[in-house]
Amino acid sequence: MSKRPQQAKGWDPIPLPLKILSVLMVLWATGSAMNLPHLMANGLPLFGTFVFGIGALLIVLFLDFIGPGGFLYALWKRKSWGVRWAFFYIGLFVLNGIVALLVLRDQLGTAQILVPNIISLLFLAVIFWKRVYFAETG
């Protein structure tokens, strides 16, 4: 009947690189919210095609709000699935960017595709580096 001691949860025990990442995710979501009307009207690339209107809203909702929100919840609560979740939703974002780079580069521009992908890969690198923080807590 021995239980392992509970690990601390909340903001204080989060490693500094993950705290910085959290702030950047919130800023990214804020920027997405501000750009949402433009994306809905002018389209959002999705695996080689453009999605407009409510479709663009749903994609932004998942990739820029639900995805990071789930990760931030896992980060705050030290859930072991947090790393897998981050790799899933950020991986979709990066895969979409790779397809856009191959198919839509002339329409969107290389920098507009590469910069968000490089930032996303840096996010993944930080999450992978600090993955032990998410270890099972008992």
Q: What is the CA–CA distance across the termini?
A: 13 Å
Strand order of the largest sheet: 1-2
Structural class: mainly alpha
H/E series: HEEHHHH
Number of helices: 5
| Sheet with most strands | 2 strands, antiparallel
Approximate strand percentage: under 5%
Key structural traits:
5 helices, 138 residues, mainly alpha, 71% helix, 4% strand, two-stranded antiparallel ribbon
Give a quick summary of the entry.
With 138 residues, this protein is mainly alpha-helical. It is built from five helices and two strands; from the N terminus they run H-E-E-H-H-H-H.
Can you tell me about this structure?
The chain has 138 residues and is mainly alpha-helical. It has five helices and two strands; from the N terminus they run αββαααα. A two-stranded antiparallel sheet has the order 1-2. Helix 1 packs antiparallel against helix 2 (53-77), helix 2 packs antiparallel against helix 3 (82-103) and helix 3 runs antiparallel to helix 5 (110-129). It is elongated, with a radius of gyration of 17 Å.
Topology (SSEs and partners):
Blueprint: H1 16-42, E1 44-46, E2 49-51, H2 53-77, H3 82-103, H4 105-108, H5 110-129
Antiparallel strand pairs: 1-2
Helix pairs in contact: 1-2, 2-3, 3-5
